[in-house]
Amino acid sequence: MSSLPKTQRSVQINAHGGLDVIKVVTDAPVPIPEDNQVLVKNAFAGLNFIDTYARTGLYLAPSFPFTLGREAEGKIAAVGKSIQDFKVGDKVAYLGVGALAEYTALDPLHVAHVPSAIPEGVAAAGILQGLTALSFARESYEIKKGDYVLIHAAAGGFGLWLVQVAKALGAHIIATASSDAKLAIAQEHGAEFLINYSTQDWIAEVKKITKDAGGGVAAVFDGVGKDTFDGDLEAVRRKGTVVSLGNASGAVPPFAISRLGSKNIKLVRPQLFGYIAEREEFETYAKEVFDWIIEGKVK
Question: Where is the Enoyl reductase (ER) domain (predicted)?
């Protein structure tokens, strides 16, 4: 490790707030991996909506300065004494805090070897959203062939992954977005029904589309939050599932849980790391994500 630099560039915040709190620091220390850590020299890093939550304080930083970023791809630059499954030079992608930096030290729990068949940069662009989409489609609500599924914000990074996963699983996908241009992107990725919630009554449109399928969708995947939650409870069918997975419009306010009872609605608020807490779980989903990329199932 003597050949490693002492300082690095990183993207940090020293307080929660607007865009002005983001700083590119040029003299952040390069971390020294502990015995049970790997040090990754990052070549590519993803930027995700969760970074906005971290910056604004919706998700509180444990301390300051705080380095942003939750996923990256690069090569192992150093390993701790206890590490056996990774060696210097291995190409990897990972989920971990502090990815928007030249070097990141982390526990190898959520570090995956990247197959040589995957082009440079693609793993960093897909591991967080890909694992989230696959695990939610398997475990938050198990999408089945023939299901009518509503995906809000379908043209976003996660939304496009979920559209493609749901299509591969045989679902009828109803996509919402704020513009026709965004809906066209969702359609290119497999959405069957398109609703512009800026100009259309999306609840009425969902009921019209599903009139012969129980009068509602089997599941709603909602990353919007406050602005769409009440409508989700109307748009889902009896015994359907609402997967509340994000807060793009703000957090869902407190509500009477008895509102779920009239249709026996299931409501879940999952987060990815609850599905990949064990190494075997992470490896299974990471392999599936990489296989889907290699096989061309996702763009």
Answer: 17-298
**How many separate helices (H) and strands (E) can be counted in the chain?**
7, 14
Please tell me the predicted confidence (pLDDT) of residue 2: 59
Half-sphere exposure in the Cβ direction for 144 (13 Å, CA): 6
Summarised one tens digit per residue, pLDDT across range 140-191 is 999 999 999 999 999 999 999 999 999 999 999 999 999 999 999 999 999 9
Q: What is the mean pLDDT of residues 230-236?
A: 98
Residue 71 CB partners (closer than 8 Å, separation 6+): 45, 46, 48, 93, 94, 95, 96, 99, 124, 127, 128
pLDDT at 299: 84
d(CA 158, CA 46): 12
The closest alpha carbon to 107, from 85, 126, 136, belongs to: 85
188 within 8 A of 158, measured Cβ to Cβ: no
What was the pLDDT predicted at 157?
Answer: 92
Say if CB 73 and CB 92 are below 8 A apart.
Answer: yes
CATH number at residue 25: 3.90.180.10
Q: Are residue 139 and residue 95 in the same domain, yes or no?
A: no
Question: What is the residue whose two structure tokens read 């930027």?
Answer: 47
Q: Which two tokens stand for residue 214?
A: 């129980």
Residue numbers of the domain that contains 149: 129-273
Same domain, 110 and 141: no
Question: What average pLDDT does this structure show over 71-99?
Answer: 97
Residue 290 parent element (H or E) = helix 279-295
CA dist 108 and 185 (Å) reads 35
| Contact criterion met (CB below 8 Å) for 215 and 237 | yes
